[in-house]
Amino acid sequence: MKPIQRIFLILLFSSTGWRTNAQNINGERILVGRESITVINFPDKVLNINFSDDGAYDYYIPKRREEKSISLQFNKEQTAGPNTGLLVNEGGRSHMFRIVYDSTYNINDDSRPPLWYDHSNLKELKAFIQKQKENQSAGNDEAAIAKQDKEQEAERKKQIEARKTEAALAQKKSGEEAAEKAKEAEKLRRNEEIKEKEEAALIAKTKKEAEDKEKQLELALQKEEMEKKARALKEKKDADALAKKQAAEEQRIKELKAKNDAEALAKAEKAAEEQKLLREQELAKKQAAEEEKQKKATEEFERKEAEKKVAQEKLAQLEADRKKREAERAYSEMGLWQRYGKKGIDVYNIPAGQMAMVNADFFIVADTLRNYRIADSLIRNDASGKINIAADKVLSGGVKMTLENIAFKDVHTYYKIKIENETNEDFLLGRTYMYWYDKNEKAKMIIKGSYLTYISFYPIIRPHTSQYIVFATRSPNVVEDESLVLFIDDRRKEKGSASIVVPGKYYVSELAKVQSTVKTSGNKRQAEFKAEEPDTKSSKRNRRKK
């Protein structure tokens, strides 16, 4: 008995429950291509993988990916692969698939969807199986599959053509709007000139106010200094006069003491005491008046200093706002037109030649949104174990590009690239695309982009800044002696292009981080995860029957 017949008989007689379980897939066709990776998603953890034919392991490489998915890669040492059966146990379900080698599958074919079979949603899985059973019971399973394929291709083509038409119209409209953009830019420029004049007048007025406040403060300081010198001079003069007067009084008392004129001495001493008291009272009044005057002068000085500070801060803010507006103005629609648009450099639409480098997935809205979420997560999260492959050259004397990480999600590969602009001019991200090279370093094919982080408006990386982009493709079946090369252009041809070479060993190594190899022991159909099958009564009974 042939192995594929044996496994079908096992499945038929091992458990009637397997045939009636509404959650078990029975006979879905799974395509495997030579240059692509096939991925199947499930609702629960994959426990066991078995080919129906031991010889199939020589042609197909099954691996578990992120617990709830499996991948199938064609062994490229072979020229073609046989059709076979594949049993997958996940959760409490057992699924039987028909593995079909498709030699015509092209990873870039716009009419063919990626080899991704998503059964991760349990509700959708049940609906899929119900429809499959209805087709099988009606005896038109193959016809239904063929019809479904045609319907999917027709719907896919409809979506693609609609988006392509939309993109073509946008490109055409952009060309037609060039003259209008020039008129609008000129109008904006005149308005900007009026605003600039008003802004310049306000700054000049504020600057004069600041200068006036500073002069007033300086004059107040000079006045205070002069008054301080005058007070010191008067205080010295008063002190000298007082000293002479006190000396005269002391001399008069001394003379009276010498004459022993008690009555005159008493009168002189009393008069001297009264004069002293009057002088102290007058001095106290002068000191109080001086303190009050000094307090008012200090308050006036502080007021003028505060006014000066406010005026200077207002001027500084206006200057800062002006500089910021000037910087932003360069990246406004008017600014971009003045700097690039009127010179024939289109920074508003997808770069010329980019459309020839993308496949149909690029135009499917649902795929674009999904890829956006994944790309955004890659940019926001700094993954460990970076590969950091630098580009072959630095553009414009300071634009560096580095492939930091390669990530795999379902049937797509995501390349996270950091672009650092250390120059004094903009870097205009242009056409971005990838080639696949064989072991002889000969280009075998383009790997068309399924997604690029910036779709409609490619980024302008400003001077002395850096930015991340994510380039996504359908996952190619790369082996270690092959390589992928990512090319990134500046929109201005004279600025050149840089390339990042991804050796096959790096690609395979990164892929291995999310996949677990299916091991064999004794019988090739013994899978790596069989020991993890739950030890329930049902599973024990099924193992005995098998």
Strand line-up in the sheet with most strands: 8-2-5-4-19
Number of strands: 19
Give the amount of beta strand, in percent.
15-25%
Total domain units: 3
Average pLDDT over all residues? 81
* Broad structural category: alpha+beta
What pattern of helices and strands is seen along the backbone? HHEEEEEEEEHHHHHHEEEEEEEEEEHEH
Shape: elongated
Q: Rg from C-alpha positions?
A: 44 Å
| Spatial gap, N to C terminus | 16 Å
Which sheet architecture does the biggest sheet show? 5 strands, mixed
Poorly predicted segments: 1-20, 519-546
What percent of residues adopt helix (DSSP H or I)?
A: 40-55%
Total count of helical runs of at least 4 residues: 10
Key phrases:
Immunoglobulin-like, alpha+beta, disordered N terminus, 546 residues, 5-stranded antiparallel sheet, single chain
Short summary:
This protein has helices at 3-14, 16-20, 122-137, 141-176, 178-259, 262-329, 333-339, 365-380, 504-512, 537-545; strands at residues 26-32, 37-41, 46-51, 60-65, 69-74, 84-90, 93-101, 116-118, 389-390, 399-409, 412-421, 427-437, 443-447, 449-452, 460-461, 465-474, 483-490, 497-503, 515-517. By secondary structure, it is an alpha+beta fold.
Walk me through this protein's architecture.
With 546 residues, this protein is an alpha+beta fold. It is built from ten helices and 19 strands. The strands form four sheets. Strands 8-2-5-4-19 form a five-stranded mixed sheet, with no helix packed on it. The chain has a five-stranded antiparallel sheet with strand order 9-10-11-16-14. Strands 12, 13, 15, 17 and 18 form a five-stranded antiparallel sheet that branches. A hairpin with a 5-residue loop joins β12 and β13 (443-447). α5 (178-259) packs antiparallel against α6 (262-329) and α5 (178-259) packs across α7. It is elongated. The relative contact order is 0.11. Mean pLDDT is 81; it is low at 1-20 and 519-546.
